[in-house]
Design goal:
The protein is α/β, with parallel strands linked by helices. It has 2 domains: about 5-185, inorganic pyrophosphatase (n-terminal core), CATH 3.90.1640; about 195-305, Diaminopimelate Epimerase, Chain A, domain 1. The protein is built from 11 helices and 11 strands. The chain has helices spanning about 15-30, 45-55, 115-130, 135-145, 160-170, 175-190, 195-200, 230-245, 270-275, 295, 300; strands spanning about 5, 35-40, 60, 70, 90-95, 110, 205-210, 210-220, 250-255, 260-265, 285-290. Strand 7 (about 205-210) and strand 8 form a beta hairpin. The mean pLDDT is about 95.
Length: about 300
């Protein structure tokens, strides 16, 4: 019986590449077949990575009842298929806080407080003594550069930096920072995207003591490209809030060159968000200097308010 490897809903590059890299590793050391999968459509950034290194798009898997699965890049049940609790979870590789998923049997877990799941995957390859193929090394390198915002994110560690350098040698990429900038240019493209597409580009929902809080993040080289569309984005955030019965919807417009984020907020209690960042919202928004990470600089400050 096959094992499906996949990441969270609204898959990002780390979750897609993680599914590919873990499946390959497991197929070298296990007797059963591991199949890379995904829960949704990939982003333009992920498509860029796959195309650059000849990666194959993982298969779409929206139901997993009765299946055996291996999870990457999160462990919160609401970020996986609705029937995830009816699947047998064999393992988890992650770099986030521990979520609410539980199992009936022991499982393999690789969880580290570092910048990217694929950095953890690199350590898995090292532990198993398996050589990383050139194409997979390139994809893993790009996933780490994406998650760490080319090493600018506060989540980035010396381990992430070292692993990127090692992977670049395997992938035979001389200037990985230049390639990463190409990737972020693709990621920054907003022309032709609807407000809903922008509001769900890197979207996650969090259960904060019974209140559902959605946080979306757009990482761009220059967020001024969205200046004229902020009201449109906010209006769609209001619509999303009603449609999904959310307490709060936050969108981070992250400028990787200025190293900060414009926070857009629609909330039943905006004072909670103001208290979280010790900042005053004006017209439902505020600039957060040096804030680049949702995981480390947003959620840990918003959560205590609930």
């Amino acid at each position: 019986m096959s094992v499906y490897v996949f990441g969270h809903k609204v898959p990002d590059s780390d979750s897609i590449v993680g599914a590919i890299s873990i499946a390959y590793l497991k197929n070298q050391v296990e007797d059963e077949e591991y199949i890379p999968a995904r829960q949704g459509e990939i982003s333009a950034e992920t498509e860029f990575i796959l195309n650059k290194f000849g990666g194959k798009l993982p298969e779409l898997k929206t139901t997993v009842a009765g299946e055996r699965v291996y999870l990457v890049d999160d462990s919160d049940s609401h970020l996986f298929q609705d029937d995830i609790k009816e699947a047998t979870i064999l393992g988890i590789t992650d770099h986030h806080k521990l979520g609410d998923l539980t199992t009936n049997a022991p499982l393999e877990m690789w969880v580290r407080p570092i910048g990217c799941s694929n950095t953890v995957v690199y350590e898995m390859y090292q532990s198993y003594g398996v050589e990383i193929p050139k194409d997979i090394a390139g994809m893993m390198m790009m996933a780490i550069l994406s998650d760490t915002v080319i090493f600018k994110s506060p989540t980035c560690t010396k381990v992430d930096t070292r692993v990127v350098k090692e992977l670049s040698k395997i992938a035979e990429v001389e200037d990985y920072k230049a390639l990463a900038m190409e990737m972020f240019i693709v990621k920054s493209a907003v022309d032709g995207s609807s407000a809903r597409e922008l509001n769900t580009r890197d979207y996650k929902e969090f259960d904060m003591n019974g209140s559902m809080v959605a946080v979306n993040q757009l990482e761009m080289i220059d967020i001024s490209a969205l200046d004229a569309r902020k009201e449109e984005i906010l209006e769609d955030m209001r619509a999303m809030k009603e449609e999904k019965n959310l307490h709060t919807v936050l969108t981070l417009l992250t400028d990787i060159m200025k190293e900060g984020s414009q926070l857009l907020c629609v909330s039943d209690a905006p004072q909670k968000i103001e208290a979280a960042f010790d900042a005053k919202l004006e017209n439902n928004q505020v600039w957060l200097d040096k804030v680049l990470s949702r995981k480390k600089q947003v959620i840990p400050f918003v959560q205590p308010q609930f």
